[in-house]
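R.M. (postdoc): so does anyone remember the format we settled on? I'll just put the structure tokens first.
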């Protein structure tokens, strides 16, 4: 079972943001604060000047399990990789935070925040391995039936997509469908089956998801 950290002194109210994606600035990134944010449909993302901003998109992207699009070529790729969970979290996080990546946003502060949550059992990595090497993967925050995907990377073609397919399968069982949050809709995510829903609809789904059982993540020692 994940370990609950001390409660946060900060509060999050995305409903008050109106038609803005940005709902707040400042606060801290302690485990309790970050968890409280996700439980209210908010996530942290710093900007170039280092300021910590908190977001709840008016149009929120999710990936329904039954909407995942697996092409024939991706299906072939799935068979070429070995899937592991939480065996190389630090390496996945470091690869996702590579500052040379276009649009990179994961600074050292965010790395520390997600690493702390991983140690407490709230953040997990899904990894695609090939020939004994980490070929790609993703990580995200898992609270009840919510999985908030944060970032993915690949070193071999299709490796991150294979990790996503594995994640969807993991979320699909034993519950028919949990909530896979992917934040903002991009053409890449749309090609995989992600859709955008209004913030209000997302928050309604979130409340239901938080009451569901989490996937069968590896046990924390």
């Amino acid at each position: 079972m994940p370990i609950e950290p001390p409660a946060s002194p900060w509060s999050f109210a995305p409903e008050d943001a109106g038609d803005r994606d940005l709902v707040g600035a400042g606060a801290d990134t302690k485990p309790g604060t970050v968890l409280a944010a996700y439980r209210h449909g908010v996530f942290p993302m710093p900007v170039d000047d280092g300021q910590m901003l908190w977001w709840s998109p008016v149009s929120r992207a999710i990936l329904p399990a039954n909407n995942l699009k697996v092409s024939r070529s991706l299906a072939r790729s799935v068979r070429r990789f070995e899937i592991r969970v939480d065996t190389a979290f630090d390496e996945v996080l470091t690869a996702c935070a590579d500052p040379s990546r276009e649009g990179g946003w994961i600074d050292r502060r965010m790395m520390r925040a997600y690493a702390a949550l991983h140690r407490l059992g709230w953040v997990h990595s899904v990894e695609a391995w090939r020939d004994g090497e980490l070929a790609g993967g993703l990580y995200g925050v898992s609270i009840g039936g919510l999985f908030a995907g944060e970032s993915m990377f690949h070193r071999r073609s299709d490796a991150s997509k294979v990790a996503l397919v594995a994640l969807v399968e993991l979320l699909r069982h034993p519950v028919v469908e949990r909530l896979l949050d992917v934040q903002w809709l991009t053409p890449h995510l749309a090609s995989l089956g992600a859709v955008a829903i209004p913030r209000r609809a997302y928050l309604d789904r979130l409340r239901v998801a938080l009451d569901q059982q989490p996937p069968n993540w590896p046990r924390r020692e």
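R.M.: ...and that's the designed sequence above, right after the tokens. Also worth knowing: Residues 14-57 form one domain. The two ends are 10 Å apart (CA to CA).
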